[in-house]
Design brief:
The complex is a heterodimer. Chain A is mostly helical. Chain A folds into 2 domains: about 5-50 and about 145-259, Cytochrome Bc1 Complex, Chain D, domain 2 (Orthogonal Bundle), CATH 1.10.760.10; about 55-140, Cytochrome Bc1 Complex, Chain D, domain 2 (Orthogonal Bundle), CATH 1.10.760. In chain A, about 40% of the residues lie in helices and about 5% in strands. In chain A, the strands form 3 sheets. A 3-stranded mixed sheet of chain A has the order 6-5-7. Chain A has a two-stranded antiparallel sheet with strand order 1-2. In chain A, strands 3-4 form a two-stranded antiparallel sheet. In chain A, strand 3 and strand 4 (about 190) form a beta hairpin. Chain B has one domain: Cytochrome Bc1 Complex, Chain D, domain 2, CATH 1.10.760. In chain B, about 35% of the residues lie in helices and about 0% in strands. Chain B contains 5 helices and no strands. In chain B, helix 4 crosses helix 5 (about 135-145). The radius of gyration of chain B is 18 Å and the shape is globular. The termini of chain B are far apart. The chains are: A mainly alpha, B mainly alpha. Chains A and B meet through helix 1 and strand 3 of A and helix 1 of B.
């Protein structure tokens, strides 16, 4: 019986990170960590920096109105968070003490809707949820990422790290092969950045819209012809935690502007 | 030995779960040193078609990562080496291995294997169980690149 279990274990682990053979890809040195902002053209940087021209502010402003509103909810977000949520976004994803689950900002907002506002869950890609996350993330703009990775978060951190280093898709590439090993180099017109999540939700020209970090991760997975995970998938939340931990200290930029 | 049967059953159950297949399109005995000396098809490679495949987004799209200086494709990538005069540097057999399945020779390389279906993981539904390019298309690319000489 033990031998069967052992055989199964060996087979299953063979599906994951392929550690045999190639040298492991090193992490980025802490002093070299830079935001995706540094790889943008001067014009795109200027657009991000101008609060009146930055299209992401449409979502931030809409989010502020939703935050104050009692329409469709038993009480507004601001009735509990009268001082707003300054600094909160910099600490997500985090463990929800009641359930022990690792949740991101989207998950936390939907939890408040269920527990405190007697309201329906907002779909992950809905304009309402995107607006509320944009407004909340903007309140932490300029603050350093500061997530907790110990205790119950530790296993999520390592699951996220595993995803980051696992080769996948028909192109057989890992996140690390592009974002740790090849940042600064060009994929057609794009300069590959270090793949940090500090700008999200972000406005992307390609989307002509604001979008969540999970939307960006789905684009990267799709690009290497891997089956993307569903929006809000627990593994993507784990990747979010790993990305935040590897970018610890980097300042939040939402609403960032990206190609 | 009574554990062997359930173990084999487990293996067969687990394998499809991670998109593994044992059949290798490029068998290890086709590889000699860092080359695949024998063409993958009996038809000759067609350099003009190879050139189109190299540039087209819906085909090889090699310009994502490589540049060929004379081509008029805008925004060519530089994640991989410049291939402007690669025909001076690499033989047909060397080119064939690098395009078809370089990872078998150099595990962990960023250069994707264009003629491979084994040992891949989480492949998109639309792309499962087929290589990125056909054997003929690999030969077309080999013919194109072999002709890129100074």
């Amino acid at each position: 019986m033990i031998r069967i279990a052992l055989a199964a274990l060996i087979i299953i682990s063979a599906c994951g990170r392929q550690s045999a053979g190639p040298d492991p890809i090193p992490e980025i040195n802490a002093e070299d960590v830079v935001s995706g902002y540094s790889f943008l053209t001067a014009e795109t940087q200027a657009l991000q920096d101008d609060d009146f021209a930055n299209p992401g502010f449409l979502w931030v402003d809409r989010g502020e109105r939703l935050f104050e509103s009692t329409q469709g909810v038993s009480q507004s977000c601001s009735s509990c968070h009268s001082d707003g949520l300054v600094g909160a976004a910099a600490t997500f994803p985090k463990i929800d003490p009641a359930s022990g689950a690792l949740i991101n900002l989207e998950g936390r907002i939907n939890m408040c809707r269920k527990d405190h506002q007697q309201a329906d869950q907002l779909p992950y890609t809905s304009d309402e949820l995107l607006s509320l996350t944009s407004y909340t993330a903007h309140q932490s703009r300029g603050m350093p990422i500061n997530v907790d990775t110990i205790g119950q978060a530790a296993k999520h951190l390592s699951a996220g790290e595993d995803y980051f280093f696992t080769r996948r898709g028909q192109f057989n590439l890992s996140c690390a092969q592009c974002h740790n090993q090849s940042w600064g180099q060009k994929l057609r017109g794009d300069t590959i950045s270090q793949g940090h999540g500090n700008g999200f939700p972000a406005y992307r020209f390609e989307w002509q819209s604001m979008g969540s970090l999970h939307q960006r991760l789905r684009d990267c997975d799709t690009g290497i012809r891997a089956e993307p995970l569903p929006y809000g998938d627990q593994t993507y939340v784990d990747v979010e935690l790993y990305l935040a931990a590897r970018a610890a200290g980097l300042k939040l930029e939402s609403p960032a502007v990206r190609r | 030995m009574n554990w062997a049967i359930p173990a084999i059953a487990l293996v067969t159950l687990c394998l499809p779960a991670c998109n593994r297949s044992d059949a290798q399109l490029v068998a290890s005995d086709q590889i000699v040193g860092d080359t695949i000396p024998q063409p993958l098809t009996t038809l000759l490679g067609r350099p003009e078609i190879g050139q189109t495949l190299f540039n087209a987004r819906e085909a090889g799209h090699c310009v994502l990562c490589h540049q060929v200086v004379d081509s008029d494709t805008p925004f060519q990538g530089n994640l991989g080496p410049d291939l402007t005069f690669v025909g001076d540097r690499l033989s047909a057999g060397e080119l064939r291995l690098r395009i078809a399945d370089y990872d078998q020779f150099k595990p962990g390389t960023v250069m994707p294997s264009y003629y491979r279906t084994h040992d891949l993981y989480q492949v998109g539904e639309a792309f499962q169980n087929a290589p990125i390019l056909t054997a003929q298309e690999v030969e077309d690319l080999v013919a194109y690149l072999a002709g890129l000489k100074e």
